[in-house]
Known about the structure:
Blueprint: H1 4-17, H2 47-60, H3 68-85, H4 91-96, H5 99-115, H6 119-123, H7 127-144, H8 149-154, H9 161-165, H10 178-185, H11 194-210, H12 212-218, H13 221-232, H14 242-264, H15 275-286, H16 300-320, H17 326-335, H18 338-348, H19 356-371, H20 375-384, H21 387-396, H22 402-413, H23 429-437, H24 444-458, H25 462-470, H26 473-481, H27 489-505, H28 509-517, H29 531-542
Helix pairs in contact: 1-3, 2-3, 2-5, 3-7, 5-7, 5-10, 7-11, 11-12, 11-14, 13-14, 13-15, 14-16, 16-19, 18-19, 19-22, 21-23, 22-23, 23-26, 24-27, 25-27, 26-27, 27-29
Amino acid sequence: QKDPDYLKLWLDSFVSSYEQFLDVDFEKLPTRVDDIPPGISLLPDNILQVLRLQLLQCVQKMSDGLEEQQQALSLLLVKFFIILCRNLANVEEIGMCSYINHVITMTTLYIQQLKSKTKEKELADQTPIEEFVRHALAFCESLYDPYRNWRQRIAGRFLSTVEKSRQKYKPASLTVEFVPFFYQCFQESEHLKESLKCCLLHLFGAIVAGGQRNALQAVSPATMEVLMRVLADCDNWDDRNPEEVSRKAELTLKCLTEVVHILLTSSSDQRQVETSTILENYFKLLNSDHSALPNPRRCRQWESRFIALQIQMLNTITAMLDCTDRPVLQAIFLNSNCFEHLIRLLQNCKVFQGYLDRLAVSTIQALTAVMHNSPAAKEVFKERIGYAHIYEVLKSLGQPSRELLEELMNMAVEGDHMAVGILGISNVQPLLLLIQWLPELESHDLQIFISNWLRRICCINRQSRATCVNANMVIRIIETLKSHSALHCTCAENLIALLGSLGSQSMGSEELLQLIRLLRTEEPKRAHPYVVPVMRAMLAMARKQGMASALQYFNLYHSMAGIAVPSIHKWPGSAFSFNAWLCLDQDRVDPSTTSKSGKRKQLY
């Protein structure tokens, strides 16, 4: 305390001994080290009080400008605190002291200097200031995300609830200074380096991922305003590094995803912001009116950046919905009119020729995510939008790519369309859309590819055939076959073979009549090219394949399906019996049913 030079020497020696714990790069996973820094009880007596006074002196001298020696001391102090916090048993006590508030005060002043654009700043070396800011943010991370949950999330590793529950030490309580500090850093920050903005976003993500209590304190109207403003700024790059700006957008979207997941696990009295409010602002930004922008900004380069941001935002919707409380979040998305917003995006994107297909693919992915495994969401989409409307919107974008058509196939199976035999039909409507689109496709290769896949997926088992028949797919196929001049012969044969398979399941008199009418030609002596394949299909319908089966049956496919009987007091006697044959059809393998927590149907 009486000899500052000796104190600095001791700090230097301590930091040098544990330098491997100074992993201040948020982009890297923490390095595994066998040794840990000492506990506070093993440090010299009153060392924390002495360091607090040293830090306070640095804060008090900040207004006049710190000398080089004092700058070096303040950085050394922050490094010391980071190292101490890597012994997780120290985190709570360090967090209760006033160090963090002093560090935030100094960081705020330094960031103000870095945000200003003056000749003095351009001439001066900003490296020491930037180094202090990066270490200060890493110190905050050490306090509020001691297990580095955020870094693991960024690296693609997701911690389960069980893994999180095993984390012995809790993060320090978030200082009330954080939200004003975070908000202030992004005010008039056009001259602040993008890399430093990324560090600030990393810190916010770390606080949210570190623990629910701190997360709910950090997720406020002010911080959400900052995230939305940062996201909106990502389409205006000027002379900034495109990679850094793109990374900033990616981090902001990951922060928003983490925020949504945290809000889902909280009660309404704990939340400062509702998920619906975040989604409302999110969709407003996604569908922002680019036509209102001045012409200089609406250049080709700007369009590509704006589309890139929109695609990132659409992909984030899929990431948001990848959570344990998916049905709850799907309901919030539906109440936020997400379907209308996504369709409007497709309609508005016609302005950006050349980027339409990429945007359309991402939009279909987002729609699939919202409807995934939710019969209610599918019904809402049919009522509010309708597949006829989305077909017209997609068709207006021009000839589709294979990627777009494959995404519609993925929507139908709610998974990878190539997993035929593993995944069955979850949503039949996209299949009807694809059948209707076939004559419009100029590429015969695409016609053959789509029709061949349709034939396989629709005929995979009794359940798939029944689903397609109930959706009136037979009539849709006949309507498509009427445009035989636009269809490749192989495509037409695939559709007729599919027709035969569905007809063997069920075919009405009206459908049969339409099929026979299809074979009429204007020249009586000339046979229709479909005569032979249609006759084969009709023979296949008439032919009995395998064991005899009932033509009428109960379908107990869905998880909630069952047969309800009257309550006991309504039975006409002392007992009730029900006799039926049971058909165990080849079923699709759902990955979720093979897990430990999966469910399976049982017979009693």
